Amino acid sequence: MPKKLYVGNLPYSVTQADLEKMFSEKWTVLSTTLITDKYSGRSKGFGFVEIESDEDAAAAVEGLNGFDIEGRAIVVNEARPKKEGDRGGRGGGGFKKRQY
Predict the structure, then answer these.
(1) Is 86 part of any domain?
(2) Is 9 within the bounds of a domain?
(3) I need a surface site. Which of 16, 46, 48, 73 has the fewest CB within 10 A?
């Protein structure tokens, strides 16, 4: 059964192709997604990799979590499912009208 992994603390210079290559050298990768800023297109420093099997995903976490890329120790762990209604972001709400 496929397993989705979170990959974080990536240098901003890492591309989606780099991310795929990093994992596909040892494991069967079904998909990769590098999260980018929708306005600038710049990497946000994290992404997701879907690995073909649970065993390979566990081996990828063991083999790459803490791996150094350009002086940054990357974080690799099992991705958590998105909660219902979770849009991400930092909250804060919207514009409030002042009442006088």
Answers:
(1) no
(2) yes
(3) 73
Q: Which one, of 55, 18, 23, lies nearest residue 34 by Cα?
A: 18
For residue 57, is pLDDT > 60? Answer: yes
Domain count, the chain: 1
CATH of the domain at 21: 3.30.70.330
Distance CA 64, CA 68 (A): 9
Residue 88 lies in a domain: no
3-state secondary structure the chain: CCEEEEEECCCCCCCHHHHHHHHHCCCCEEEEEEEECCCCCCEEEEEEEEECCHHHHHHHHHHHCCCEECCEECEEEECCCCCCCCCCCCCCCCCCCCCC
Question: pLDDT value at position 1?
Answer: 86
| Residue 54, domain extent | 3-78
- Return contacts of 80-84, CB within 8 angstroms, 24+ apart: 80/6
* Residue closest to 20 by CA, chosen among 60, 77, 78, 75: 60
